[in-house]
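Supplementary Methods, section 5.1.

A reviewer requested that the exact input to the structure prediction be made available. We therefore reproduce it here, unchanged from the version used in the analyses.
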Amino acid sequence: MRYSRQNKILDLINNYEIDTQENLAAILRNHGYDVTQATVSRDIKELQLVKVLSSSGKYKYAVSSHKDLPASERFSKIFRETITSFTSSGNIVVVKTLSGCGPAAGEAIDTCGLPHIVGSIAGDNTIFLLADSEENVPIILEKFQEMLATRGKND
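The structure derived from this sequence is encoded token-by-token as follows.
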């Protein structure tokens, strides 16, 4: 439920100018999420959201553009908790996730900066990754396997 809610938060802040935790909580409730302000506050911290000046001159929540934040740590946690399987064909890697977790896991992969990934497309429970070449797919799969091997050890 947390990843589904956090994915919804990312969707909402991309589509609306949300300036307070209270407003975000109210909008989430309107979308069927039973949340408290404390839950929203934790989600904002975990998603590393920041306030930025919008085109209308008001501040709103946005995803941080700083690549030096611990995105790889966040990616590892999301990966371990939501990925159910992965495989490849040619230079395409297919990642299966728990239902509703594809966009959050896809965003984490995109912001993580893993080498050899050209781009991604994320659906509800499936992510397609395009590798720069078929020869580099084993490097990506090995990294994914390493991350799954630490499941439960670092959580």
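The first helix runs from residue 2 to 15. These observations are discussed further in the main text.
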